[in-house]
From TrEMBL:
Organism: Falseniella ignava CCUG 37419
Main function: Catalyzes the dehydration of D-mannonate.
One GO BP: D-glucuronate catabolic process
Enzyme nomenclature, EC number: 4.2.1.8
Protein name: Mannonate dehydratase
EC category name: lyase
Catalytic activity: D-mannonate = 2-dehydro-3-deoxy-D-gluconate + H2O
Required cofactor names: Fe(2+); Mn(2+)
Pfam families named in the record: UxuA (PF03786)
InterPro entries, A to Z: Man_deHydtase, Xyl_isomerase-like_sf
Length: 360
């Protein structure tokens, strides 16, 4: 696996210089942030990011995200032109030598939380989702102005888009996703880009909006739309685990078996009552996900794609973009690399022992 770190470009208070100093991190996951959603990303803009990353001794390991325009998700007539633009963006990304693109197909909102700075028992601040609070939120009243999303809308635009979605149920959204996938994956195959769809976060319907990339059944259906290594997953264990009925280890092994894990997001969450959860520190003992099992599965399949710690808590007085501070994510990266080192060494030892029949 290749340990990577998300970087929000030149405006990110976490600098490439900072990231380079995190042990085991080799790659950067970033995006072009100054082109409106739906327009083609020019080669120069992509190359500029790549050059900055490489000047810091790191590799641009993938793009997160190339956002999908709402008209494509809603299946509007304008989608064909927008899909052509998306295809051209993929070609331009490939021209810069980048081979992984993450995206999602969540209507209107990217990841959603009810509190971005909830104080945990140890005084750190974390993102949380409280089911009761979410139920009381009304996006039409402008209650939601959560940062961190790849696309942001004014209150009026949000209301308008939500109204449009009242016509779209899960099945219609699936059809619109199928339409999109069947058009873009042939291009991804042609130019050598591995596409990675991020699950809906949290993985169930919120505010009455349809949501479809939610668990194992959904993954099976999604992969069958177009059975190609270029049509894969960003397997975000934290997102899938936010639905207590999902077994993330089973989901991960299923996707690895089909060779469709193109990107890993690896953070922990602590399940609370019902569908509520807190984003915890990465190690197994703080959350509901057994991280050893996650990294063991990747090792069992000799998985060699990009992986990143996902959101982190705010610790040591750090302020900044919720979920995307430096310190806790850096701890996450070294912890995950530590698990990998231990598992790989143990396996090498087992192999040698089998080969030579003696202790090594
Ligand atoms: Mn994620």
């Amino acid at each position: 696996m290749e340990m990577t770190f998300r970087w929000y470009g030149e405006d990110d208070p976490v600098t490439l210089k900072n990231i380079r100093q995190i042990p085991t991190v080799r790659g950067i996951i970033s995006a072009v942030y100054d082109i409106p959603v739906g327009e083609v990303w020019p080669v120069e803009n992509i190359q500029r990011i790549k050059d900055m990353v490489e000047q810091h001794g790191l590799r641009l390991s993938g793009i997160e995200s190339v956002p999908v325009h709402e008209d494509i998700k809603m299946g509007k007539d304008s989608r064909d032109k927008l899909i052509e633009n998306y295809k051209q963006t993929l070609r331009n990304i490939a021209e810069c030598g980048i081979d992984m693109v993450c995206y999602n197909f969540m209507p209107v909102f990217d990841w959603t939380r009810t509190d971005l700075a909830y104080e945990l028992y140890d005084g750190s601040n974390a993102l949380i989702f409280d089911e009761c609070v979410a139920r009381r939120m009304d996006p039409l009243n402008g209650d939601l102005s959560l940062p961190g999303w790849d696309s942001s809308y004014t209150k009026e635009e949000t209301a308008d888009i939500i109204k449009n979605y009242s016509e779209i149920d899960n099945e219609k959204l699936w059809k619109n996703l199928e339409y999109f996938i069947k058009k873009i994956i042939p291009v991804a195959e042609e130019v050598g880009i591995k596409m990675a769809i991020h699950p809906d976060d949290p993985p169930y319907s919120i505010f009455g909006l349809p949501r479809i990339i939610t668990g194992k059944e959904a993954i099976a259906r999604f992969l069958d739309i177009y059975d190609s290594p270029n049509n894969g997953l960003a397997l975000c264990v934290g997102s899938y685990a936010s639905n207590p009925t999902n077994d993330v280890n089973d989901i991960l092994r299923y996707a690895l078996e089909r060779n469709r894990v193109n990107f890993m997001h690896t953070r922990n969450i602590l399940l609370k009552e019902g569908k509520s959860f807190e984003e915890s520190a990465h190690p197994t003992e703080y959350g509901s996900i057994d991280m050893y099992k996650v990294i063991k599965a990747l090792s069992d399949y000799d998985w060699n794609g990009p992986i990143r710690p996902d959101h982190g808590r705010m610790i040591w007085g750090e302020t900044g973009r919720p979920g995307y501070g430096l310190y806790d994510r850096a701890l996450g990266a070294t912890y995950l690399s530590g698990l990998w080192e231990a598992i790989r060494n143990m396996e090498n030892k087992d192999l040698l022992q089998k080969k030579f029949g003696k202790e090594t």
